[in-house]
Amino acid sequence: MEALLAFWDGAFGSTFAVLSATLVRATPLLFVGLAVALAFRAGLLNIGAEGQLILGAIGASAVALGMPGWPRPLVVLCMLAAGALAGGFWAGIAAVLRRRFHVLEVISTIMLNFIAAAFVSWMVRGPLQEPTRVYPMSESFAAAARFPFLVPGQRLHLGFALGVIAAGCLWFVLRHTAAGFRIRAVGAGPRAAASAGGIDVSRVTARAFIASGALAGLAGASEVGGVTWALYEGISPGYGYTAIAVALLARLDPRWVVATAIGFGALEAGGAAMQRTAGVPAVAVQIVTATTLLAVLGATRWRARRRREAGA
Amino acid sequence: MSALALSLTDIHKSFGDTRALDGATCRVRRGSIHALLGENGAGKSTLMRIAFGMLTADRGSYERDGHPVRFASERESIAAGIGMVHQHFMLIPAFTVAENVALGGHGRFRASDAAAAVRRVGEATGLALDPQARIADLPIGAQQRAEIVRALAHDADTVILDEPTAVLTPSESEELYRWMRRFAAGGGTVVLITHRVREALGVADDVSVLRRGRTVLAGAAHALVEDAVVAAIVGEALPAGGDTPVNATDGSVVFALRGASVRDAAGRERLRPTDLVVREGEVLGVLGVEGAGQRELLRVLAGRIAPTSGQVQRPPTVGFVPEDRLEDAVIPEFTLTENYALAHAGALRGRVAWAREHDGAEQVVAQYDVRAAGVGAPMRALSGGNQQRFVVGRERQRAPEALVAENPTRGLDLRATARVLATIRELARTGQGAAVVYSTDLDEILALTRRVVVCFDGAVREIPPPADPTDRSPYARALVGTDA
Amino acid sequence: MLELLIIPFLEATIRTATPLAFAALGELVAERAGVINLGMEGAIIAGCLGGAAAALAGGSGVGYLGAAAAGLALAAVFAVFVVRIGSDQIITGTAITVLGLGVTGTVFHLAPALVGVGETLPTTGPIAVPLLSRIPVIGRVLFTQPAPTYALYALVPLVAWWMRHSHAGLALRAVGESPAAAAAAGVASSRVRALAIAFSGAMGGLCGGTLVLAQVGSFNENMSAGRGFIAIAIVVLGRWTPWGTAGAALVFGAAFALQYLVQSLGLALPYQLFLAMPYVLTLVLLATLRGRAVAPAHLGR
Questions:
Q1: Which of B114, B371, C55, C155 is the least buried, fewest Cβ under 10 Å from its Cβ?
Q2: Contacts of C273 in chain A (CB under 8 A)
Q3: Which sign, positive or negative, has the C-alpha torsion B188, B189, B193, B194?
Q4: Which residues contact A100 (CB under 8 A, 6 or more apart)?
């Protein structure tokens, strides 16, 4: 009981909780959730959001550390661009492997996750390591490379606002643009899309894959630019996998992803508080994630079976 | 032992709304070759799948060797001595012949024993095969032999063959018939599912004819006349009312094929070099059993596939109504508006003007009498007939000049069928544009047009309208290849 | 040089490869039946926990049994969703892994005594095989290992033989190529897939048990460290055959052991290179050798 109270307090109990804990933790989940939602909408199993996020973080960090003396807006902009490009590039590898060599993207993206982890491990012990060469992390970013806060005195940073904007943009693209329509068609009915719609399915899929990676890369850029202000290993404690739950629960709708990302952010914030105050481990939150996923899976099949039996 | 190896009585089987079998009966004598004839969709495969345990009947009785049975799985029927060679082979391409034959056994698997079994059956039946050969590497005829050997290796005394000669060359077919005769002479029983009347009468002892899920004719082969059998297959029903449009012959050319042929991925010629002209105001009827080449013909005309050789002339946009509506024509989860937009999705740029798509979809709904709760309803909420009318309407709007329809009335009830056909007839009546329509129902085609081509084994032949408009035998014969 | 560097390196290779090989063999059987078991990571960590708890209660032998049982239990949930309900394999597998990590992590924090944190668990140390361990080099490397390694020496040829020379193995492979064709031949496809998943879960559990009882000596949160996903890579690298899988496990084992070799040699090579190598190798192989042509035709569907 005490644990639940602590949980609620930690997630929503105070302005600090909401703004500095819940929403901040929701930010990377928001971006990665959008990435996964986009990929799934296009019929792609992108399990590589972890790796794409890491590459995004590396890209953004490289820019942040390599551009001293530039004005902040420019640095932040370049960091975001670098993050998106790096993430898109990483997904692009899997996209090429899928398109040219028919490699299942499930396997290739998982492999790329591991390679990304190794890459960042090397980066923070090598080229990007902090000057004293003691700790496996990069130097702290200069002030120009730190994302501005949205609310004075709180830790809510630019990344969250960007995430919400990204959600709106993604929704708009999917709903109102030709490219978005083609992505949805390819994911919902690849044969009809090719036959009735004259759509180049493999090209549309590849582009969606890269875009998905770019979104995940933005998550990485957002984390290093808005929260950690440095690069180190473990920048992503499994966001790529939680994001699958975030996306599925939101029924792959970008607008709802904002809500579910905040929900899972709250879970994490509450979990951390629960651990601090009541000693209930934060990792228990993972059980909620897993059961939610399984429940969604079960409900989907149940609904499909009901519809089939009704003779639709 | 009973005189009847298989006895199926009054079998009923439905798949959702579709009535596949509506009181079919089949009595197969032991030691005989029994031909099961009928058009596409008559229910032949369904009936035998029930006999083999792949499906269970909704109603009716089934006796095996005089004992009532109800097989819940293939395992049970195999154990009862029944084997089936499927139209689309159920072999594992990556496995060898021996491995495929041995599949389903118990205990220790000895490759040498399996190979010996293959050779043993091969010697006894004349169906020679290399046990170590991989199925994927074998030619079609050999693959089929492997399926037969597998059935026999499991000690089947009753073998069901589903359209076996569809994929064989004439000489391979002859070999197969020789095996069937030897097998029956030795006491085995063969059920041959086929649409080829001449072949059936040539090799079978008994014949059963199914039409629309019912048995319409059954008897000894030697007592039956080819024409009577053909008549039973296609039925005696006259075209359902309505005037047949007289086709204009002097309009400008809409479709033209010059020596166009199509080879599939395996290199087989699915459509032989064909010359064909369709003019404005014409409706061209296409007939053919499954795999006869009409699929390729239609898609070449519609511009969905390119001919492997030869030329095709067609308008820049051609409306296409494919047979598999839910997979190829529409996306069931999308709304009517979205499905309307789908037709030009490849060409759209920038923003999608949903208001315009909405209006376009509403126009289709109004013009083609589509019953729906509004264009915002998901496609899957519509009945099959309404879905089809929407697709036809969408394609007509997109390409007013040319329409190619593949079995457009498949799965539709009588009323929906009549409405779709009326839509197509309109096209010819207005005199602009041309339509090419494929159907497995001869009645339907003849109600639409006098100009008919029949596909058989990849060849396309035009059948001139017979002097007596109620005489349907020329078409029927061309369909089953008995007039070559 | 041999003494100081090569032999410890080879020993470490075998040692690191052992748990990987258990998990990979399990994953192999599942994938030959057409199922990608992404829940393997969950099965491994469950095995770690189960092994620790059971060993605490009844000794190391019971520990291994408990480990296998824990992995099996988690895999059973996976099987219900994938085989019975027909859910997507990938998403279900991810959920199972998250579930496993969540449950074990929670237990670790809430009831550490259950898994013997702070205590010494009854572990199994290296056992020297009587005569064979005297052979120079090979004796130390191959025959002075803990018991699970020896179990593998028997298990790999057993699985290989079973897959090629038993009808059950033939049926398994058939289901992974074409469940419809297998059914037409009288094989109970659903049951085969469920059993294959169960086996993979048990093996994942054994992997976890080996980690705890024969290597680390205690249970730690997240100690599976991605081995479940590595197992998937091993199966691909091993081209979906038992011996290939064993070999690929050795490759991964060597790659990880190589880091220490490189570090002790004082070479300037970043050890992460060796960390990433096996995965890069897998990708290259998949691309060039048309991995699709070697994988079971019905995998993942």
A1: B371
A2: 118, 122
A3: positive
A4: C287
Residues in A 277-296 with any Cβ partner in C closer than 8 A: 279-281, 283-291, 293-294
| Domain residue ranges of chain C, discontinuous segments joined by + | 2-288
DSSP H or E segment with residue B270: strand B269-279
φ and ψ of B323, to 5 deg: -65, -45
Asked whether residue A158 is domain-assigned, the answer is yes
Domain tally for chain A? 1
Rounded to two decimals, the ipTM of the complex is 0.86
Distance CA A105, CA C86 (A): 21
pLDDT in tens, chain B (484 residues): 568 989 999 999 988 777 889 999 999 999 999 999 987 678 888 999 999 998 999 999 999 988 999 998 888 999 899 999 987 788 999 999 999 999 988 888 888 888 998 998 888 777 788 999 999 888 877 888 888 888 888 888 999 998 887 767 677 788 889 889 999 999 999 999 987 788 889 899 999 999 888 999 999 998 988 888 888 887 754 344 455 655 656 778 889 999 999 988 777 888 999 999 998 888 899 998 777 888 899 999 998 888 999 999 998 889 999 988 888 999 999 999 999 999 999 888 899 999 999 999 999 999 888 888 888 999 988 887 888 889 989 998 888 888 999 988 876 766 777 778 887 887 777 767 888 999 877 777 888 888 899 998 888 999 888 887 777 778 877 877 766 5
Q: What is the CA radius of gyration of chain C?
A: 19
- With an 8 Å Cβ cutoff, is A241 touching chain C? yes
Give C282's contacts in chain A (Cβ within 8 Å): 107, 111
Q: Which domain holds residue A162?
A: 25-244
Yes or no: say if A148 and A157 are a contact pair by the CB < 8 Å rule. Answer: yes
**pLDDT-derived band of residue C1, with 50, 70 and 90 as boundaries?**
low
Place of tokens 């020496």: C153
Spell out the alpha helix ranges (H) of C33-88.
40-79
Inside any domain, residue A303 = no
CA B170, B173, B175, B178 dihedral sign is negative
Please indicate, yes or no, if residue A153 is contained in any of the structural domains: yes
> Would you say B165 and B8 are in contact if contact means Cβ atoms under 8 Å apart?
no
* Chain C interface disruption, residue of A29, A112, A287, most C CBs within 10 A: A287
Give the mutation candidate from C272, C281, C294 for the A interface (greatest A CB count, under 10 A). C272
Domain C2-288 falls under CATH 1.10.3230: no
SS3 B23: strand
Residue that the structure tokens 């390694």 belong to: C149
Contact criterion met (CB below 8 Å) for B192 and B164: yes
Q: Residue A59 falls within a domain, yes or no?
A: yes
Contact status, residue B136 vs residue C178, Cβ threshold 8 Å: no
* Residue C229 to chain A, least CA–CA distance (Å): 7
B436 strand-pairing partners? B284, B404
Would you tell me how many other CB atoms lie within 10 Å of the CB of residue C147?
A: 17
- Alpha-carbon dihedral B326, B332, B338, B341, rounded to 10 degrees: -10
Give the whole-angstrom CA distance, residue B331 versus residue B466. Answer: 42
Report yes or no: C99 and C46 within 8 Å, Cβ to Cβ: no
Residues near C184 by Cβ (< 8 Å), separated by ≥ 6? B54, B74, B84, B86, B90
